[in-house]
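Title: Prediction job returns without error message
Component: structure pipeline
Severity: low
Priority: P3
Assignee: unassigned

Description:
Job completed but the reporter wants confirmation the result is attached to the right record. Sequence as submitted:
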Amino acid sequence: MSKQTTPEFLFEPKLLPMQLFEKFIVFNVNAGYRGKGTPHGVNLIKGNKPTLSLTDKGVMNKAAQERYKLMLLKYFKEGRSAMDELDHEVKRIYQMVAA
């Protein structure tokens, strides 16, 4: 019998879809990462964890790819509500900034 492949090993994501960019930032900020803008994107930093780097085109470094896979696994396990929560958080942040 063949070993079942889990979703995290089906592919290696290298490019973050733009429609998930803000949700990915919020997902990581909620996990304790701090954002720092760069001339070409953003770095997310957390203590002694590897820095997550994203370009403005959505290209991710290896550490960011691993966190993206965690976000996708959360979506696979919890369903649409996981993304809806992140979307709600993104909208709340925009409202706070606009006020």
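Comment from assignee: result matches the submitted record. Helices lie at 21-30, 62-78, 80-98.
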